[in-house]
Automatic annotation (TrEMBL):
This is Bifunctional ligase/repressor BirA. Belongs to the biotin--protein ligase family. Keywords: ATP-binding, Biotin, DNA-binding, Ligase, Nucleotide-binding, Repressor, Transcription, Transcription regulation. It catalyses: biotin + L-lysyl-[protein] + ATP = N(6)-biotinyl-L-lysyl-[protein] + AMP + diphosphate + H(+). The keyword ATP-binding applies. Biotin binds at residues 97-99, 121, 125-127, 192. Residues 71-265 form the BPL/LPL catalytic domain. It is an enzyme of class 6 (ligase). Residues 23-42 bind DNA. Acts both as a biotin--[acetyl-CoA-carboxylase] ligase and a biotin-operon repressor. In the presence of ATP, BirA activates biotin to form the BirA-biotinyl-5'-adenylate (BirA-bio-5'-AMP or holoBirA) complex. HoloBirA can either transfer the biotinyl moiety to the biotin carboxyl carrier protein (BCCP) subunit of acetyl-CoA carboxylase, or bind to the biotin operator site and inhibit transcription of the operon.
């Protein structure tokens, strides 16, 4: 971690309870000047996306408390099965990208089930080259490393399996309105709540090194919406005061992912198809799938046994292994489409 972030993070630790803390008390407790505090507060806002409220005549507070990640609390909340499958957990205050950090280390002696989790990412990645926006403490940001003996082309459907597993766990928290959009965007009332990014590196005949990244919106401010290019929602908006603790939620999702990755190795995608069908609320609805600069309009007709998207177009049923899907399809007849 950048040493220059130590002071901002120390101040954030004091403010994390959501109460008002005077500048004088913070300066005294941390041995800082008031000028140093002001500069650190600017860095919290500009570099970490943390909104700090100045209360005139009283001090500073956060809009809501932040439960910081605690490795011991996460490990204590893991199921027995998850503990067996996890080879290690590495926690970062801030990191470029949890996925990228693991990809750089695939030649190290990492065991399957190695987890990197972070409070903040400076270069978080989503699908199709997008960035994943999340302020410090505003979400669940983690990646899991896994090794498979088979080659990358034999892992078709892994993205579907991971998405179905995570969505099933989140649905237990927030109910029936949760849905999956192919291949693994997790939506609530057609707004994105969570997403997965899977990176695979390996030889054609194997082995394959897989990194599964997960981002879940926990609490985002409206100011963050300008940087997000699609409808979004966070768990705080959905659950209100019933929001689970971040460490509890992180442990549940880590356990879900490692168990899903292990099961996929044994049973393949077939073990997850029923869960996908249960969460596929958009079947029968118009969609558009974009591949490069080409757009294909049609009706979403589910997925096949390998996880490919089935679309009913004017030319009949077609299968897609890749592409960007939108539920807000334009009127049929779009000049770039083929419907």
């Amino acid at each position: 971690m950048d040493r220059s972030m130590q002071t901002p993070l120390a101040i954030l630790g004091q403010l994390s309870d959501g109460a008002i803390h005077s500048g004088t008390a913070i300066a005294r407790d941390l041995g800082l000047s008031r000028t140093s505090i002001w500069k650190a507060l600017d860095r919290l806002r500009d570099d970490l996306g943390v909104e700090v409220v100045a209360v005139r005549g009283s001090g500073y507070r956060l809009p809501a408390p932040i439960e910081m990640f605690d490795q011991e609390r996460i490990e204590a909340a893991l199921s027995v099965q998850a503990r067996r499958l996890i080879s290690g957990i590495e926690l970062h205050a801030t990191i470029d990208s949890t996925n990228s950090s693991l990809i750089k280390r695939i030649n190290e002696d990492l065991g399957s089930g190695f987890v990197v989790i972070a409070e903040h990412q400076s270069g978080g990645r989503g699908r199709h080259g997008r960035s994943w926006v999340s302020p410090f403490g505003g979400g669940i940001l983690l990646s899991v490393f896994w090794r498979y003996a088979r080659g990358p082309f034999q892992l078709a459907g892994l993205s579907i399996a991971a998405g179905a597993a995570v969505a099933t766990t989140l649905r237990e928290w927030i109910g029936e309105e949760l849905a999956l959009k192919w291949p693994n965007d997790i939506l609530w009332r057609r707004r994105k709540l969570a997403g997965l990014l899977i990176d695979v590196v390996g030889e054609a005949s194997g082995p394959s090194h897989v990194v599964v990244g997960l981002g879940v919106n926990l609490r985002l401010s409206q100011e963050m919406s300008a940087a997000i290019d699609q409808p979004w929602v966070d768990l705080a908006s959905i659950m209100g005061h019933g929001l689970p603790g971040r460490n509890q939620l992180a442990a549940a999702l880590i356990g879900t992912l490692v168990e899903a990755l292990d099961r996929f190795d044994r049973d393949g995608l077939e073990a997850f198809l029923a869960a996908w069908e249960c969460l596929d609320r958009y079947r029968g609805q118009p969609i558009m799938i974009r591949i490069g600069d080409r757009a294909i309009n049609g009706i979403h007709a589910g997925i096949d046994e390998k996880g490919a998207l089935r679309v009913l177009t004017k030319d009949g049923a077609r299968l897609f292994q890749a592409g960007e899907v939108t539920l807000r399809a334009p009127e049929f007849g779009d000049e770039k489409g083929d419907w």
